[in-house]
Specification:
There is one protein chain. This protein is an alpha+beta fold and 257 residues long. The protein has a single domain, classed as Cyclic phosphodiesterase (Cyclic Phosphodiesterase, Chain: A), CATH 3.90.1140.10. The chain is built from 6 helices and 10 strands; from the N terminus they run αβαββαββαβαββββα. The chain has a 5-stranded antiparallel β-sheet with strand order 3-1-8-9-10. Strands 2-6-5-4-7 form a 5-stranded antiparallel β-sheet, with helices on both faces. Strand 4 and strand 5 form a beta hairpin. Helix 3 packs across helix 4.
């Protein structure tokens, strides 16, 4: 096992359900939460991120919807549903690399600069992989409930591919928000659960036993998000066909002075 995979799996273990310390959420939710109100409504929250969408026609998308519904139903059975805001399935994605985020819209000059930087990052196509394959297995728990993305066994070389993409974006933008830790977000904490966390963990540990799925992508989007449910494609990076395609109408729509 390579150092990269060792370090990656260490980061996944930080999201382990059974050992999650919920007290880290104290003071971070409610009015102090930049992304959600206590009733679960999404707040305006703007930023740029590179994501690989979960194809809505795929078995993976269908199964993630079922998994999310199962978790929601199990919580609601025991009166725990109000602690979470469940994301719209249409937003399901794997984050390749975050660039920036905040409560106010991104200004025109910065948006133009980021678009140019991402385009420039993929000028040397001979260094760029044509696609990435991963396994979706298990659940993680931090401020979010996530389906975890793994690269064990024969998929170890695939981790190096996505780290290459992540590295190219960070090098071009000179921004390193976090180390890549693959996940697909399903829900966010919006209220502090206190002692209810034990029942939450019990339910999630049982739901985490779903059948593993394979996820492959050969393109991803630079997206502008306005909240945690709405991600608008600004530019598509097509790895297989070695092409970068701006979405001009979306770019104009989300520019601000």
């Amino acid at each position: 096992m390579s150092n990269s995979l060792d370090q990656y799996n260490d980061r996944l273990r930080e999201q382990d359900i059974s050992s999650y310390d919920v007290t880290v959420l104290k003071g971070k939710l409610g009015e102090n939460d930049p992304k959600f109100y206590p009733d679960g409504e999404a707040k305006a929250f703007h930023g740029l991120t590179c994501i690989a969408w979960i194809d809505r026609k795929s078995n993976l998308f269908h199964n993630l919807c079922e998994l999310q519904d199962t978790i929601r139903r199990e919580f609601e059975k025991v009166g725990l549903g109000s602690f979470f805001s469940f994301l719209e399935p249409e937003s399901f994605h794997l984050t390749v690399c975050d660039i920036e985020a905040g409560p106010t819209p991104i200004r025109v000059k910065k948006l133009d600069a980021r678009i140019a930087q991402i385009r420039e990052a993929f000028n040397s196509w001979h260094e760029i992989p044509k696609g990435v394959t991963a396994q979706i297995r298990g659940l993680g728990l931090k401020q979010t409930i996530t389906a975890l993305v793994r690269f064990d066994g024969e998929l170890e070389s695939e981790l190096e591919k996505i780290l290459c993409l992540d590295g190219k974006i960070k090098e071009a933008t000179r921004v390193n928000v976090r180390e890549f830790t693959g996940h697909i977000s399903l829900a966010y904490f919006v209220q502090y659960p206190g002692s209810c966390i034990n029942e939450i963990k019990k339910i999630l540990l049982n739901c985490a036993k779903y059948e593993p799925e394979v996820f492959t992508f050969s393109q991803f989007d630079l997206t502008y998000f306005t909240d945690m449910n709405e991600f608008i494609p600004i530019m598509t990076i097509d790895l297989e066909n070695r092409d970068v395609r701006p979405h001009s109408s979306n770019i104009q729509m989300h520019k601000t002075v």
